[in-house]
Amino acid sequence: MIQKRNLESLNGSASAHNQTSRPEAPHQIWLTHSLSDYSGFWPRSQELCAARCYAFQCAEILDVRCSTIAAAGNVETLFVAVVDAEKNPLMLLPLGIQRRHGVRVLTFLDGGLSDYNSPVVFPATRDWGPEDVRMVWRELQANLPFFDVAILDKMPERVGDLPNPLILLGETRHTVSGHATTLSGTWSHFKAERLPRRRMVGNHRRRLLGRGRLTFEIAKTSQQRDAFLAALIRQKIRLHRETRTSAEFDQPGYREFVTEMTNRPSTAGIIHLSALKVEDTIVAVHWGYVVGSRFYALISAYEGGAWARFSPGRLLYEHFFEWSFAQGIEIFDFGIGDEDYKLEYCDVEIALHLLDIPVTLRGAEYSVALKITKMLRRKVSNTRVGSVLKYLLRKGPEHNHVAAAPETHK
Q: Which has the closest alpha carbon to 32: 96, 103, 80?
């Protein structure tokens, strides 16, 4: 078990693998601030081996998150490995400590662009019971830097074919779920039997074709990446201004993260940046991940004004599905959020959970205040007045024909 005095020595120097644990412990816990200490050990998107994780926990993505969002938010990054006596990995945890209103909060290394937070798990954890997980947590808590409360949210019950061990610590159900579509059979059958609103989308496609050549393009050159990314940021910020919601691209480090992920050679195989164009006008654009057989839909936007009435987002999603079938993608993941349009497309609901563990009085007060705030927001949101306000803000004067379309995704 690593002592706190050893934590600093791991950064950029000695490998975390040299640490020891109590002789009687069936495992060791390695702890470091730097992901580079786990080079060749932490799974990468194309080298998952026995690891089970979501794209958000892959080393390439975490590395960019550390240098952008975490750095901008003054997050103290912490990478934990639980290994067996032979130094085989059992569970990996990408964590961070951030000060919020004077409270030190331990969270997953999320940064606002992680739909699913979870540990990276390996087959041996399948046999862990509640006491095994509690032992690991006690040892981890004793050796982490000081924090007031641990809030580990957006946790799925399973990671691949393995259970999420942290669920055994005692959790509560998250207020929202993830949603995904399984892709089986052929594209022609899927298009005929499972695509919603086919007549409406067909009409919109014909009307757009009347305005010029309609093309679906995946960014492959630096010029395309620059143009598509600029359109995405501009359209997304415009949408947030119109709906009076917080724009992610205004958050510290967020724009840098998306830009760096898009342009860094090591992440080129992960990013799926595409656009729907009418002649030279980008009417819809999307940025997401493709890892293994899973397509992660993350950030989408569309052109406003007269273009919005054609629901270009739905047209773009049809191209995603067609492309996914051609590439052998098995799961199209719409991510977190219970928007109505997802229920039209999706046949899988991913239940998400929250782990809230105060360790100080200040942490307990913060936890209670956070719960009260969320409860009040839900109550207001569920009232008739709240529903009307959300409806008006979402639609705006220009969006009378797109209320059910997926353009509002994230």
A: 80
Look up residue 362 and give its two tokens.
Answer: 């200040």
pLDDT tens readout for residues 149-167 = 999 999 999 999 999 999 9
CATH code of residue 102:
3.40.630
**Full-prediction pTM beyond 0.70?**
yes
The CA angle 340-346-352, to the nearest 5 degrees, is: 80
Same domain, 252 and 106: no
Average pLDDT over residues 45-50: 92
**Mean pLDDT in residue range 39-56:** 94
Instruction: Please check whether residue 388 lies inside any domain of the structure.
Output: no
Three-class secondary structure assignment of 18-49: HCCCCCCCCEEEEEECCHHHHCCCCCECCECC
The answer for residues whose C-beta is within 8 angstroms of residue 255's C-beta and 6 or more apart is: 233, 249
Higher local confidence (pLDDT), 17 or 324: 324
What does the pLDDT read at residue 381?
59
78 pairs with which residues across the strands? 95
In this structure, the answer to whether residues 136 and 261 fall within a common structural domain is no
CB 355 within 8 A of CB 152: yes
- Regarding whether 137 and 31 lie in a shared domain, the answer is yes
Q: Quickly count helices (H) and strands (E) in the chain.
A: 11, 17
Q: Is 244 inside a domain boundary?
A: yes
Q: Which tens digits make up the pLDDT trace of 362-395? A: 999 999 998 888 777 766 655 655 555 444 444 4
The domain in which residue 101 lies consists of 4-170
CB of 261 closer than 8 Å to CB of 76 = no
The encoded tokens of residue 339 equal: 């928007």
Q: How far is residue 313's CA from residue 402's CA, in Å, rounded to a whole number?
A: 9
The size of the chain, in residues, is: 410
> How far is Cα 110 from Cα 62, in angstroms, rounded to an integer?
9
Helix extents (H) in 264-327: 312-327
Sign of CA dihedral 383, 384, 389, 390: positive
CA atoms of 273 and 288, how far apart (whole Å): 7
Helix (H, G, I), strand (E, B) or coil at 294: strand
Q: How far apart are CA 163 and CA 363, in angstroms?
A: 28
CATH of the domain at 324: 3.40.630.30
Whether the Cβ atoms of residue 14 and residue 36 lie closer than 8 Å to each other = no
